[in-house]
Amino acid sequence: MDKNRKTAILIGIAAVVILGLVYYFSRGPERYIWNETYTDDGSQPYDLSLFKGVLEESASEFEVLEGLFADKSYLESSGNTMIYVAGYAWIDSSEAKLLEQFVKKGNNLIISSRSAGKSLRYLLDCGIAEDATLSDEKVSSTIKVEGSDGSFALSYDMYNQPNPHSWIFFKDLPCAEATGFIEINEDRHPNLVETEIGSGRLLMHSTPLVFTNYHFRNDSVFAYVNELISKADGETYYYLEPGVSPSSSGGPSIGESPLKFILANPPLKWAWYLTIVLALFYIINSMRRKQRAIPVVSLPENQTSAYLDMVYRLFRKEGSHRDIVHSQVKLLQSFLRNRYSLNAYKLNDEFYELASAKLKLDKNYIEQFFKQLERSRYNSTLDDSELLKIDREITEFYLRCP
User: Fold this and answer.
1) Residue 247 has pLDDT above 50, yes or no
2) pTM of the full predicted structure?
3) Lesser CB count within 10 Å: N end or C end of the chain?
4) In this structure, are residues 46 and 38 in contact, taking their beta carbons and an 8 Å threshold?
């Protein structure tokens, strides 16, 4: 038998075995990510899909906003309500101006975020110092949340077991009224504040965990969220898409690495080892074959935007998400260099200061945007929904550039 044919047969058998193992183990029980994901398109314990679905079904008019800058028609409305469960994200100064304009026209705004104090400082104009945090935190396994029908226990559960968690509450409020409270280690703290802005009303909430799938299905939590939403009734409900995932310096990581997950499960671990052994056999067998050397063609040093765009389209056709993000970053770097003389290859404080001055954008927004891109371009497990979200964020950045 020809050696090439023999090798092909062995590779085919190995592929069938691996696919069979993958199919067998994929039929097992679903595994959940017990971290605060705060996304609205999944069924993980700390996603927001259940709350979003209930709100959409119960509202007479419901509209999803994928950003504050893409479509500003909401600024022309009056008597409506916007809801933003931001998770770990916050409102920067440029976004605060749009939201302030929205509320002043007689609309309501509900924001629930672990960074609620930082967002509140941007939204309130009552002599707040720039270094004021307006919030604090305490660690506890369980807290009590006060509602109109009494209090209920709330905890950050992992595998259905309470775990120590950092709970956010408000402090030093200069021009906002505390209307909701939580009890942490027998101390009472405000977690909901309200204030009038023009003809509208702002409600800032610091316990977004109540909106997640795991807790929202409980009757006491459902009643609490319903009471919170009823404080700001509107004809149309604008649902602002959740913010960015927590960074390494912020909240907990979203999940384990794929290799760590594989090695933690014996069936997947042995499938992984078998794949490595088969790959080694193939490499050893290939080393015995004599092949003609293939000349290496190097890329031209002066890569233009047109060339990068062509590579981006090619990777999109092939479905290589990581390479797509990498090409998008290259295009963005070329765009900033050619139009604004900004060197986006070195992401440091000097670049963020210069970019903020030239682009007339908030420095924190620029820093968070590029850090998110860096995490995405080295993420080998990007799925379609994450890629679409990155596309929207990059498109929004281009729109905000002058």
Assistant:
1) no
2) 0.57
3) N
4) yes
